[in-house]
Specification:
Helix content is 57%, strand content 4%. It has 16 helices and 3 strands. The chain has helices spanning 3-21, 25-30, 41-50, 54-71, 81-94, 105-124, 153-165, 170-183, 187-191, 221-233, 253-266, 268-273, 277-292, 294-301, 310-315, 320-331, and strands at 198-199, 204-208, 214-218. A 3-stranded antiparallel beta sheet has the order 1-2-3. It is elongated. The termini are far apart. Keywords: DNA recombination, DNA-binding.
Length: 338
């Protein structure tokens, strides 16, 4: 008997054995692999958390903790898409109801994104196959349009006036508002500034922001002078944070929170509409786009070349004042916001 004939005989014997056991070749193909040493969520989440950036950990950390609380003893390859969908619904029900709540959409989206991140790492580490990521089979909820928009000039003047005349450090708060208004930077970009990030000769600051993006952003000579003096007077050392409290401690996100609470107490519309620092980004980018075009606005925002243009479009869509102006022209009656 030749080698080929022997191989055929072994295949025939194998098929006969499978038939007697009631198993088809298709059943073998569909059967899950026996994975030895696949970690549990309680074991693997700390590994993933230790390897991500601080920004990613801030965004996903609470959701990974939730996963560990619910599935800690389960292996990471056990949950199905249906299990994830049930967990998403559970998280949506536990969301704290706020005035700007959207039915837990944000929490659902963040949980799915957190799980996708975890499973991508698991695939890279060889714990699952690339095609076995169950989070990819769960659709994220459709993101609703942001309620943020550009702030009218008169309203922005009110905000700056309150910031400059109240609080325990009005000089700091005024400089913060001017920094964000001039550069349209995010809070993280401002807090990451260091003394060596200031190019006083060319009036440029080096911003490190979302997604690891970096850029040189122009500022006015006046703002540059204030930043330089601020760092000098408050003891900002090279390699350390530039923005500091009076006692020399580095600024944190809480300063922004306290600032807007204080402004909202004196300007009820700020509290009602939940105005925040990010509204200043919308305000500046809208003005740049209207006066210098979309390409300049995109560069001003620091959005990556070749990326999704919708990111910039989010910031420069028509303002409420422009809609009111259209209504005034349509009806022939003046409108207070037009």
């Amino acid at each position: 008997m030749s080698t080929s004939q022997a191989g055929q005989a072994e295949l025939a014997a194998a098929r006969l054995m499978l038939e007697r056991m009631g198993i088809s070749p298709e059943d073998l193909a569909l059967a899950p692999e026996s994975r030895v040493g696949v970690p549990t969520f309680a074991e693997y989440v700390p590994v993933v958390a230790a390897g991500v950036t601080p920004g990613t950990l801030k965004a996903y950390g609470s959701y990974w903790n939730k996963v560990v609380h619910v599935w800690g003893a389960r292996r990471i390859d056990e949950p199905s898409p249906s299990d994830i969908e049930r967990l998403v619904e559970e998280v949506k029900l536990q969301v704290v109801a706020r005035r700007n709540a959207r039915g837990g959409r944000g929490a659902a989206e963040s949980l799915i994104a957190a799980l996708r991140c975890l499973y991508r790492r698991a695939a890279a580490d060889g714990h699952i196959r690339d095609g076995d990521n169950p989070a990819l089979k769960v659709a994220k909820p459709r993101r609703l349009p942001s309620t943020r928009r550009a702030i009218a000039d008169t309203r922005l003047e009110e905000i700056n006036r309150v910031a400059a005349s109240t609080g325990d450090d009005p000089e700091l708060d005024s400089m913060l508002l001017r920094l964000h208004t001039e550069t349209a930077c995010r809070r993280a970009g401002a807090l990451a500034l260091r003394p060596e990030d200031l190019d006083s000769d060319q009036c440029l600051i080096f911003l490190r922001e979302k997604g690891g993006t970096v850029r040189w952003q122009p500022v006015s000579p006046t703002l540059m002078q204030h930043l330089l003096r601020h760092g000098l007077e408050r003891g900002a050392a090279r390699g350390a944070a530039l923005l500091r409290y009076r006692n020399g401690g580095p600024l944190t996100y809480r300063r922004y929170d306290h600032l807007w609470v204080r402004v909202g107490e004196r300007l009820p519309w700020v509290h009602t509409q939940q105005i925040s620092t990010h509204w200043l980004r919308h305000t500046t980018l809208t003005w740049v786009e209207r006066n210098f075009g979309f390409s300049v606005a995109r560069a001003y925002a620091g959005h990556a070349e070749g990326g999704n243009v919708a990111a910039t479009a989010t910031y420069v869509r028509a303002t409420l004042q422009e809609v009111c102006a259209a209504l005034a022209q349509l009806t022939g009656e003046p409108h207070p916001l037009a």
